Amino acid sequence: MIYPYNRKAAVTYARKWALARNPRYADFEKMGGDCTNFASQVLNAGGCPMNYRQYGWYYRSINDRAPAWTSVRYLHKFLIHNKGAGPVVEETNMQGITVGDLIQLDFEDDGIYNHTPVVVDIQPGERSLEKILIAAHTIDRIDYPVANYAFKKIRFLHILGYRR
Asked: pTM score > 0.70 for this model?
């Protein structure tokens, strides 16, 4: 069974912590970036339970966490292939995302995605990257248009809900 993702709670968390750090979690900014750690926190705040399998998605401490909690690549791999507890997602296009969803960006056009911002608002009108606003860590952002990033590739991850 897939349970509903609480988008309101996720976005509320993203807005609260976009320009600060929740002391319950380590800050990975000086260790490669904090964006995916922040995105994982947002998913968890939206009700997605952690998955404590060996290759799951969880955070207990800086030294006891799954690679998927803090790595853009491993988060994507976990989300797309997860059949157990935790978030259930589908890759979609720009039209298929909504607030609380994730976006991943490849800055070098090398097939390696480097950044995981969270969608916090979509302005009314015809959907465009200018109207999709994100929150993110590493370079902290809130209500920042996706179009302002200098990326080469983009993928959209729509959260369908979660399994327990």
From this structure: yes
